[in-house]
């Protein structure tokens, strides 16, 4: 005779399960630097190790130098708290952190793994590079923590890297000190983290030869740069770029020689007369001066060493990493500004004013025969000009010379209304992040629908399938064709659809960069 469990029995089972989980010994791991104790998360289904140093603190004489190996430690390191985020100021309201605060001592990473993972396993590894315009961000942001990707059988690593003036200063004095090469320290940090993963991830049960790097915004720019960096070769086997690449002007990559004079003038403005004085200067004084720079004042440079050449040149010659790629962007990366109050009549006037005798060509690519169409074209135009153009050039370059599968997506699902984005009608820049990590509930004020959670699970499955095999397909998902073979784009929405690339005319028009007539 089968008896149904009483509510009291069920409560007791849950209580004792929770008690056993709470009393379980902390998970431990032996790295090449020493032993660390992490913690159980997701009710004991996953293990997390926070604040593991992958490089020496880049302070004092190590400020503006390539990262040095981390020191070893004795005893058991507490790996239950995030390491400090790298020096930055408050830039965006949706950047929320759970670490102790900004510091130059910030080169730490975090490892998330399934509870059953153990040394000698061969789980795929996904290394996340956060966005933030090389100005802000950290692995401690709640939208990246407790990633649901891990439940699909992968190990996720998140990391911090030097930002802004501390990560990318490329002055004349630094170039003289470093054999003619300066800058790119933030990107060097990421390579150092990948080397740490190569050396240590086996202790966590990961496969050091099956590593996927993925990032969004500046993190995607970093992924594109690492694809041509000789020092990163062989440290990853797959790449995912979400919204951005060094193929445009939104985050410029200039030559080191162009930047050197400008950056030297910045150093002079600080009152430093030598690198010794500059390295002894308080970080907050340097950061306050950098804050006054317009836009993204410090970013990657073609230095002839870490980055021997520009990305367009490298890809044209086929000198990029030949690894499977997922590259895409969001439908409304920048929307609602030019399109506000737009009508068909205004759109045609815009075309005539800014493109003159090319107006008809412009309108063929960005049609506006009715008001609704004009609004959509205006949003497409600003989205492309902001971030999508560079990503499009990247996906085209990889398709032509990459010698590996390329998958292209567009994230189309509008984010629900919340205080920072009250309209609830745009798939804005960074919309996809909580879907990718399965952390929808950390976005304050948003009311999610079942379709959002379903789409998040589908995206996570695509991403982890890709990390496992280099092919996102499987698990009953809609088929995602290769862009390099079929020029098909998957639209991540409810429902997921696949279409031929219908936006090529837009990008081909903009690629010619006809001057805007003001």
TrEMBL record:
| Record's signal peptide | 1-22
UniProt keyword annotation of Signal present? yes
Q: What class of enzyme is it?
A: hydrolase
InterPro entries registered for this protein in UniProt:
AB_hydrolase_fold, CarbesteraseB, Carboxylesterase_B_AS, Carboxylesterase_B_CS, Type-B_Carboxylest/Lipase
- Which segments constitute the Carboxylesterase type B domain? 26-506
A Pfam family (short name) is COesterase
Q: What is its EC number?
A: 3.1.1.-
UniProt KW keywords: Hydrolase, Signal
**Record has Kinase as a keyword:** no
Example of a GO MF term? hydrolase activity
Provide the family line: Belongs to the type-B carboxylesterase/lipase family.
UniProt name for this protein: Carboxylic ester hydrolase
